[in-house]
Amino acid sequence: VMELCRPSDSRLEHVDFECLFSCLSLRLLLRVFSSLLLERRVIFTANKLSTLSECCHAVVALLYPFIWQHTYIPVLPSAMLDIVCTPTPFIVGLLSSSLTQLNELPLEEVLVVDLGSNRFLRQLDDEDSILPSKLQSALENVLERRRELANDRGADSISDTGHLSTIVSEAFVRFFVELVGHYPLFITAEREDGYSSSSSSPAPCSFQRERFRKAIPSKTVRRFLEVFMETQMFGWFIQEREHHRQALRGLFEVRVQEYLDSINENEHRRVNRFLRGLGNRMKFLSKK
Q: Which part of the chain is the UDENN domain (predicted)?
């Protein structure tokens, strides 16, 4: 008997987050993650094609609900190496055998990550200071406990990649909920009489950018948002919700609604729930 099962959420299909953790330390992974949030140029290098493709695919999946809007080539042929000289953002996977050629190219502000030796071959030296420190610490704490949390959820073995992937994905989703989960409060529709109405209205919606940013009490989070809001990832995210908000029902939207329902009207600007022990309150995808 052959039994074929699809994941409860298709976002996790063909995604192996443990491949990332086996190649990169948690600290290094978060530095790469933070660089991608600012849409920087990142090159991954490894000896094996499978390692490159799996890690590139996994790191892009970490960005959910945001979608990488730029060049994405999990395995770049050496004949096309000149692509990494482009001034636009990219995620590229490169075999280690091409490193000699890479070093001869005029690279500027490029992050080169060696998956084989768990280190940066090139970096900008500010990667540790990109993410708000408290949010980063909370996220790091949960990821360090991912195996323990997976076992609590019912994983059959320590190598149950399905449960581990769910834990990792949910941790990053919660990170983004705490960062931008208040966005529905600042998407409003304009009525014909010129007054704002509920965002449930079929009228075109607009995003109140500055009010959204200033609603965060933390100065460090506001500073990060100021830069993150200028990325194409964030722009596309808001544009989709301005035009199709009622049709969006993914995991992130579910978690955002839970987040907004869990706080009263006077607390919606607070961003401290994530900091009070994210792992203890984390809600995982239920089996369908």
A: 1-248
